[in-house]
Every structure is written in C-alpha cells, then in structure tokens.
Specification:
By secondary structure, the protein is mainly alpha-helical. The chain contains 17 helices and five strands. The strands form two sheets. The protein has a three-stranded antiparallel β-sheet. Strands 1-2 form a two-stranded antiparallel ribbon. Helix 7 packs antiparallel against helix 8 and helix 10 packs antiparallel against helix 12. The N and C termini lie far apart (about 95 Å).
C-alpha cells in the first residue's frame, strides 16, 4: 500500500469480530516479503483464536515499554515523590546519596523490571561488611524504588531486595560511635577554623552550640530572636508531630559567628552550599578528613558532653538537655515546665571560654526547679 508521503508498507486486511480492519506490518524498505508473510500468518492465527491482533500488538508494545523504565529514572521519581516527607524537602541529598554512590553506577541503566537479587547482591557485596550501615541504607532505598516501580504498574520482583539480603548474609560489622575529638584538643581545632568561609563558620557554631549538624545546616534567620535560636520540632532527630521546639542560648561568641556569616547567607539560610541548598554534612567531614583527623563533626557533641562531665558539677538533666536529649518519662516531663535555658546559657558561656582558649576552671551549676 502506498502512503501519503510516497513510501509504501505491508498491510494485512482482516475481519475482526465482523469488522474489516487493516493492520500495518512495516515499511517495504524495512520488512522483507518473507518477514511480512510470517507476521501475517502469526496475526491470522490470533484472529482464528478470537483475539484482536491490533489490540494484542498494542498490549505487547505497552508491556515492552514498561521494561524500558531504567532504575535511574525510577529512583529519581521515587525521590521526588518522597521529598515532602524528608527534612528540608531532601535538599541536602542524604536520602538519595546511598543510591547515587553505591547502586546507580552499576544498575542505573538497567530496566527496573530486569533487576533481580543476584544483580543486587553483586552490587552491594563489596561494601556489605566494610561499610555495613551505608550498604544497609542503600538496600533499603532500593527497596523503596522497587515498590515505587510496582505502584507505577511495572512488573518488578518486590522480594528482590530481601532475597539479596539473604544471599549477602549477616553483616559482621557492628555500629560504632562517631569518633570525637577529645575536649582538651577542641580549642586548637577551633582556632584553626579562621578563614571566614562558610565551612569554617559552620563548624565553629556547631562546636559552640552542641547541636546536631542537621538543624545547624538548615539554620534560618527567622529562627533567631535576639540571643535565642529556636529549632523547630520537625527539624529535630526522631521528630514526631508533637515534638516541641528546642531553644538554644546563643552566647556572645556564637552571635559573633552568626554576624560573620550573614554576608554569605542566601535564601534565608545562614550556611548555603556553593551551588544550591545548604552546606552538607560531607563538606564539613571532608575538611576533617583532609587534615587526617579520625573525628567527625557530630563527635563535637560528645566532646562537649565529656567536658561537662569531667570539668563541671552540672546536674544530669541540665547536661542532657544541653544536647537536646529527652530527659525523664512522659509524666515527669509533663510536670517539669523548664528547659533550663539560663543554666544552659551559663554552661555554654563557660564552654565557649574553654573553646576559645579561656579559663578552664571548674564550674558548679545549681539545678532550679
């Protein structure tokens, strides 16, 4: 049959459910007479089986198209759909990072419907014991991606990650505490953070306040009122819907760091990254890695806690609240109306004095009801 564009194609005329239909079998240039005859015989057999060959071919094309969805695309779509559930809408990239670093380089271009437990085992086996926690996160993220693919109607093996876990075996690695710098060595490290860059300023404020790196990295101007920084409940670790806000007293040294950082701020964030979003955990960690330090940024919370225990008589509740830890049972917390703000302020002033090379005298704090 001649086409409007001057070309020609093979056409099979059929009667399907009492209706005359025409079914294209391909261009004369691309399909030989033998191939056209074989195709015609195949589709005539479908008619004899009371199956509409045109609808059947469309169904086969749709099934084939499903298999073309590669894991990279599915992972990105799954990430987009989950952003609202993640801290800061996932802008720091921590949810996606295990996939990006350890799964997608090997499986990113593979159709998700073709991925099985052997593929996953071979991908994760190099880090399954050496980087156990990272491997566990990567496997969990992959499981979420596969469930996302299933929700899209793709023919995937929902048990592939669990089968891979069985093939990989029990992890030998045991979780270890994040290495911390001894509190006596903190002043020298603090003094070395002197070039006024975002990374140096962020690390300085992290040390001074004892907060976790997440709230610090997402610190906004509107969270600061005078000398108090209020961390929203939803920004805290293990957050729940009713997690209360947490007030952090800002001592003069901390306020000075904030003033230095203001000219570098962007989009309301005090510590933006070079490209977009906010500074990442990795940025601060890499600075310490380059200096061949075993300690990591999160470890400064331990440095502060050890300093409190070894050089002050701070009551337990005040010390734990300084780190943002929940103290006491639900009933006890309901009757306790204080967050020890002023006691914590005095404690952090003494810590700042130590960190900046000042007095190391013993401090006695009295807990007030």
């Amino acid at each position: 049959m001649k086409r409007d564009d001057g070309g020609a194609q093979w056409v099979l005329r059929l009667t399907i459910h009492g209706r005359r239909r025409e079914m294209g079998l391909g261009s004369l240039l691309d399909v030989s007479l033998k191939e056209a005859r074989e195709a015609a015989d195949k589709w005539r057999a479908s008619v004899r089986a009371n199956v509409d060959p045109i609808k059947e071919r469309e169904k086969q094309r749709r099934e084939a198209a499903k298999k073309l969805h590669i894991l990279q695309e599915i992972a990105e779509d799954a990430f987009e759909s989950r952003k609202a559930e993640l801290k800061g809408d996932g802008k720091a990239g921590r949810w996606f990072t295990p996939l990006e670093l350890h799964i997608l380089p090997k499986l990113g271009k593979v159709p998700v419907a073709e991925i099985d437990q052997t593929d996953i085992r071979d991908t994760l086996s190099p880090i399954w014991h050496a980087k156990a926690e990272t491997a566990r996160k990567a496997l969990n993220r992959l499981a979420i991606c596969i469930r996302h693919a299933a929700a899209l109607g793709l023919d995937v093996d929902l048990q592939a990650t669990e089968k891979a876990r069985a093939l990989l075996g029990q992890q030998r690695h045991k979780a270890e505490n994040i290495p911390a710098l001894p509190w006596a060595e903190v002043p020298a490290f603090y003094a070395s953070l002197s070039d006024g860059t975002i990374t140096h300023l962020a690390l300085r404020l992290l040390i001074l306040t004892g907060v976790r790196s997440g709230p610090l990295r997402f610190l906004r101007f509107d969270q600061i009122d005078g000398d108090i920084w209020t961390i929203p409940g939803e920004a805290q670790k293990g957050r729940k819907d009713k997690t209360p806000d947490f007030r952090v007293p800002l001592v003069p040294e901390a306020l000075a760091i904030i003033e230095q950082a203001k000219p570098l701020a962007r989009d309301g964030y005090l510590f933006p990254s070079v490209r977009k979003g906010v500074i990442s955990d990795a940025t601060m960690s890499r600075l310490m890695e380059r200096r061949e330090m075993a300690a990591r940024p999160h470890g400064f919370r331990s440095s502060l806690r050890d300093w409190i225990a070894e050089t002050t008589d701070t009551p337990y509740d005040v010390a734990e609240t300084t780190l943002g830890h929940v103290v006491g049972g639900k009933v006890e917390r309901a009757y306790r109306r204080t967050d020890f703000l002023e006691q914590r302020r005095k404690l952090l002033e003494r810590w700042a004095s130590h960190v900046t090379g000042g007095s190391g005298k013993l401090l006695r704090l009295v807990e007030n009801g």
